[in-house]
Every structure is written in structure tokens, then in C-alpha cells.
Design goal:
It is a single chain. This protein is 75% helix and 0% strand. The protein is built from 7 helices and no strands. Helix 1 runs antiparallel to helix 7, helix 3 crosses helix 4 and helix 5 runs antiparallel to helix 7. The longest helix is centred in the middle third of the chain and has 26 residues. The protein is globular. 20% of the residues are buried.
């Protein structure tokens, strides 16, 4: 089992601070951000780290393809049940697949394969050979890529706090991955 050293904890704290700075564009008073959206990004990052730790334990005894398939199936079942319950409680949120075009279904299937199944399969395969702490630091890079994509694709202008946050995440991830596994 991998030990969590003080240095890794310090770097994790720096990375977490970086993610916070990346999310909260409002810290400079622009007023364009959404607190709920920012909190969802933060919570999703925490859940992603928990996923890494949970999967690292499982990957030692289950093949990546089998683990990916079972995780995706459970995710699908939970989603169907949640949407079913939501549409029962509130008809406004009714989910109806009638009338959805074939191109939409093909796009949804392709997206599911590329963005989820294949991505998770590759990730779990890599997780067999790298320490969980290294993988967890890579997760923190997701918001960095999100902000960078917004800059390139839609011309978003990052604030100084976001630049600093991105640098903190990148630097802490780099430093954490230079540490010897314990």
C-alpha cells in the first residue's frame, strides 16, 4: 500500500488551491461565474480522486476491460433509475426517447464510447502501472484543460487568479510525479 507522505499532502493542498483559483473567476469581481457550477466542478474533482483510489484497489484483481464494463453498466443503471425517479416526482423532468433521430443516437453512442468507455479503459490500464497518488494528481489537471479549452475555442479571457491556479495545479502535479513512490 502506498504511503501518503507530508510532501504529497502539501502538494495535494497546493493542487486543491489551484483548482479553487481556476474555478472562482468571480474573485476579481467579474460577476460572470456561477457558485453552483463552481461547486459542482470542485465536488466532481473530489469524486474523481475517490474514483482513482477505489479503482486502484480493484485494478489489482480485475482486468481493466472487465472493470470498465462493470463501472459503465452500474453508471448506466444508476442514471436510468435516477431519471426515472426524477420524472416520476416531477413531470417537468420527464425523459422521453420517442422522436429522437438516428443521427442523435449515433452521436450519443459514439460519444459514450470515446469520452467514457475508451477513456476509462485507457485510464484503468495506466492505473495498473502507476501509483494512485500520481493518478490522482492527473485528475486535478482536468479543470486546467477545461479553462485552456475555453481560451482556445471560445476566446475566454482567464483572470490572474485562474492563471495562478493553473500554474499551481501544473507545478504541484509535476512535483508530485517526480517523487519516488513509497
Amino acid at each position: 500500500c502506498e504511503k501518503l507522505t507530508r510532501m504529497k499532502l502539501l502538494l495535494a493542498g497546493i493542487s486543491f488551491l489551484g483548482v479553487l483559483l481556476l474555478m472562482f473567476k468571480d474573485v476579481q469581481g467579474t460577476g460572470q461565474g456561477s457558485l453552483a457550477g463552481n461547486l459542482l466542478v470542485l465536488v466532481s474533482t473530489v469524486f474523481a480522486v475517490c474514483y482513482v483510489l477505489f479503482s486502484k484497489r480493484q485494478i489489482n484483481s480485475i482486468e481493466p476491460l472487465q472493470l470498465t464494463s462493470s463501472q459503465q453498466l452500474v453508471g448506466l443503471l444508476v442514471t436510468v433509475v435516477c431519471f426515472g425517479l426524477l420524472s416520476t416526482v416531477s413531470p417537468i423532468h420527464e425523459v422521453n426517447a420517442v422522436g429522437i433521430s438516428l443521427p442523435f443516437w449515433l452521436l450519443a453512442i459514439g460519444s459514450g464510447i470515446m469520452q467514457y468507455a475508451l477513456a476509462f479503459l485507457l485510464y484503468l490500464t495506466a492505473l495498473q502501472t502507476i501509483p494512485a497518488s500520481h493518478a490522482a494528481f492527473y485528475i486535478a489537471l482536468i479543470p486546467v484543460f477545461g479553462v485552456a479549452s475555453a481560451v482556445v475555442i471560445i476566446g475566454e479571457q482567464p483572470t490572474l487568479a485562474q492563471w495562478m491556479g493553473g500554474l499551481l495545479v501544473i507545478a504541484s502535479s509535476y512535483c508530485a510525479n517526480q517523487l519516488k513512490p513509497t
